Amino acid sequence: MNVGIIGAGTMGSGIAQVAATAGCSVVLYDNSAEARQHGQEKLGALLTRLVDKGRISPGEKQRIRDNITYAGSLKELSHTELVIEAIVENPEVKKAVFSELEPHLGHDAIIASNTSSLPIAALAAACRNPERFIGIHFFNPAPLMKLVEVIPAIQTNPEITKKALWLMQEWEKHPVEAKDTPGFIVNRVARPFYGEALRIYDEGIADIPTIDWAMKTLGGFRMGPFELMDFIGNDVNYTVTETVFHAFFGDERYRPSFTQKRMTEAGFLGRKSGRGYYHYGENAPNAEPVQDPVLGQQILDRIVIMLINEAYDALHFRIASREDIETAMTLGVNYPKGLLAWGEEIGYGECVRRLDALFDEYHEGRYRCSPLLRKLA
Ligand code: NAI
């Protein structure tokens, strides 16, 4: 299959590698010669590392490299059957690229965007034939992360959705189908992991290392919320939260935290800037967690119940199927178990009791129980 990728940055290069590994012939377009050069060098170095580790053979490396050609003009994508766009997260820039691209493509070609936060319907509307447009959202790093969210817009032809789901399986990904709503599945359901941890910290209930300790040691999460925010970058994580908050018309459930905003404003972005919630580098002055099992359990219970509530609300609003919500959170963000199953394990009655206790304490819509959870209880 002939595939076009637009944008040779982090995501575009990763998606190109996935498609080339699956045997597709890929044309990778970027309007910056420097980005094309950099992308090509980075891919070369990455494939060499894979060969050194014995994950792929030198022949396989050559085959993947040969399957990707770099282009400096959109015209060079004219023979492709699927184009995936992964350029800057700016709707106007993306729309301009789609309008320029479309006349070069054949009638049957599919156009997809890897956007994390823009409405697919709005991007599709920039095309003359919006029925061929769909969201195909990979996770970073694309070659390693199995999950792909496939998001049809209201304009998308159902046949295109079927084809995209099938194709992602062919590329050895695990596709899930999500409704075109803010954050799709993962970036919506995961919000309380960060938001509630920040809230616990803001209220002085526990310090940062203690919250991370509780989530990892008692909860089985691979990283604590603050470690993860430092890893993602506070600027990136804050922007996602703010975007989701506004996209939900200011629903207080998604309200960002001043703590994270100030961290971003101060340039304490996390690992990439050497300082975030933690200090990085040798002899970094980081505090030890207070390993109090009672406090730890309270922290874990509060964050997990908010995640469970979000997952049930996503199911209530049919954002995705039960199975896809579970898959998305275990494969997309490596949660130790599916949140719907976790709620069942705790017991619906107990879930409702915990949420109502938070609501009684704060009287904020943030803590409202999902109607589905209440119905099940
Ligand atoms: P990036 O900044 O690494 O790469 C963007 C590339 O697009 C750059 O090489 C740039 O030269 C190129 N570009 C910009 N404007 C262009 C134009 N008009 N025509 C052609 N090329 C252009 O960005 P990244 O992180 O790869 O993100 C790309 C998209 O993927 C965004 O929509 C982002 O929301 C989404 N995404 C990002 C994830 C991540 O973790 N970085 C995860 C999932 C989705």
The total count of helices amounts to: 17
CATH-derived architecture of the largest domain: Orthogonal Bundle
CATH topology of the largest domain: N-(1-d-carboxylethyl)-l-norvaline Dehydrogenase, domain 2
Structural class designation: alpha/beta
Q: List the uncertain runs.
A: none
SSE succession:
EHEHHEEHEHEEHEHHHHHHHHHHH
The N- to C-terminal Cα distance equals 49 Å
User: Based on CA inertia axes, which overall geometry fits?
Assistant: globular
Q: pLDDT average, as an integer?
A: 96
What is the domain total for the residues? 2
The small-molecule ligands in this entry are: 1,4-dihydronicotinamide adenine dinucleotide
Number of strands: 8
In helices, the fraction of residues equals: 40-55%
Q: Which percent band covers the strand fraction? A: 5-15%
Characterize the largest beta sheet: strand count, sense, and whether it forms a barrel: 8 strands, mixed
Assign the CATH class of the largest domain.
Answer: Mainly Alpha
Task: List the strand order in the largest sheet.
Answer: 3-2-1-4-5-6-7-8
Task: Name the assembly state.
Answer: single chain
Radius of gyration: 22 Å
